[in-house]
Amino acid sequence: MIPTLETDRLILREPPSEDFPVYEAFFDDAVASAAYGGPLSSGQAWRVLATDLGHWALRGYGRWAVTVKQSGEMIGGCGLWWPEAYPRSELTWWIIPSARKKGYAKEASLAAIKFGYETLGWPLVETHMNDENEPARRLVEALGGKVIGRGAFPDGLTRNIYGLPEPV
After folding, report:
1. Among positive and negative, which fits the CA dihedral 17, 127, 133, 142?
2. Per-residue confidence at 6, pLDDT binned at 50, 70, 90?
3. The pairing of beta strand 90-95 with beta strand 146-152
4. Which domains occur in the chain, in start order?
5. Which of 80, 46, 50 is CA-nearest to residue 62?
6. Structure confidence by residue, pLDDT tens digits, 41-52
7. Which of 129, 145, 146 is nearest to 93 (CA)?
8. DSSP state of 51
């Protein structure tokens, strides 16, 4: 069972198949999804949704659908995940372009980080991103993230690894 998290403005919930049009539009947008492997075909976007659901079943945690409380609009995904063959778990998120620059990624990330520490009992929540992903780096720094190392990943890239503090 995927727990639901609530923040001041957001609900992080299980992503049902009704969210697929948001996944499809986001991952079809080459600019919006560039840092997430996009653009992706409709079938590939469907597999991202299926992966989000399956990760919860396989690992007991994963990425939630991020929705705006006031409108119910699904605006992205955020959570903790650890793909097979990757050296570590990470905080990850994506937000549709029309919902960016409103603090939603930070708000959702804080809820996911808190879940990692309080519910999963992790000693450290981490994240990493491609070196050229400046928006992600700025968000991680705004979350209080500090570089704790650098590592090689299965996609052939080397990335900084950030430790994220427990939210207060």
Report:
1. positive
2. very high
3. unpaired
4. 5-164 (3.40.630.30)
5. 80
6. 999 999 999 999
7. 129
8. H
